[in-house]
Design goal:
267 residues, 15% strand, alpha/beta, 42% helix
């Protein structure tokens, strides 16, 4: 199994990438962005980075800045750019974030390292045939949407690669349920965790069973959130308080790169 190597200049690279990334509108926090940068730099698998859900390019820029620095190839950014949640279609039925996205990657100097697909992920998945080292799912947050995104591209994720979902600890039904049911409860995966609202796991088809106890412990805590978010409705009052308490009990602090590497190197 490949040993995870942390580049000596990683801290500096992440600092510089964040300086550019924070200028792009979006909902990715600094700690989440830095974790994505860590994955872009250090996932010990061959293949490309696939991003489902780009919006204006905040995570795209972070991933591309870091990946290009280490010769990791382009970021394949998939998004129809017509989100009914993020865009005002009442004022403009043809509203799109695509031009803003293109402007963001151009301004950040990473346009040459991004392969945009202004399409739905399931359409791209039908003809996809490239190996994936990091699958970043931040698209449709319904259960059907998150499940479809994982099912469409997971067959191409390389062993030792990583799958991650955004907003798994936010009030959306899809990311948390798919992560618990399809990832944490599967012996195909090894080390796993949360960094703020990012849920991540490494694909370990050969020895994932050795991590079952650790995954199961995390799954039990995370599964307690699912009844609160399954409707997709905004939480209020005591229900919101109970949800926040259960979310607090799910470990989701930022992780040091070397600590993360040790998790992947453990058995």
């Amino acid at each position: 199994m490949p040993t995870v190597k942390i580049p000596a200049d990683l801290g500096t690279v992440l600092d510089r990438a964040w300086e550019v990334t924070q200028k792009v509108p979006g909902y990715l926090t600094e700690k989440e962005a830095r974790f994505l940068g860590l994955l872009a730099a250090c996932v010990p698998a061959k293949g490309t980075i696939v991003e489902i859900g780009s919006y204006m390019g905040r995570s795209t820029v972070m991933l591309a800045k870091v990946s290009s620095h280490y010769g990791g190839g382009p970021v394949v950014a998939i998004d129809p750019h017509n989100s009914p949640i993020l865009l005002d279609h009442q004022s403009n039925q043809t509203a799109s974030s695509y031009q803003d996205f293109l402007d963001s990657i151009q301004s950040a100097g990473v346009a040459a390292h991004v392969e945009p697909h202004a399409e739905y992920a399931n359409a791209v998945a039908k003809s996809w045939n490239r190996p994936i080292r990091f699958l970043w799912i931040d698209g449709d947050h319904t259960y059907k949407g998150a499940k479809s995104d994982l099912d469409g591209f997971f067959p191409h994720v390389e062993p030792q690669g990583v799958v991650a979902f955004h907003d798994a600890l936010s009030n959306f039904p899809g990311p948390i349920r798919v992560f618990v049911e399809d990832v944490l409860r599967s012996d195909r995966f090894g080390p796993a965790g949360f960094v703020q609202s990012i849920a991540w796991a490494q694909f370990r088809p050969e020895d994932g069973e050795a991590f079952r106890e650790r995954r199961s412990s995390l799954a039990r805590r995370a599964a307690r959130l699912m009844p609160f978010v399954e409707s997709g409705n905004e939480l209020q009052g005591m229900t919101k308080r109970r949800y926040k308490l259960r979310r607090f009990l799910v470990p989701h602090s930022a992780i040091d790169p070397r600590e993360w590497a040790s998790l992947l190197d453990s058995k």
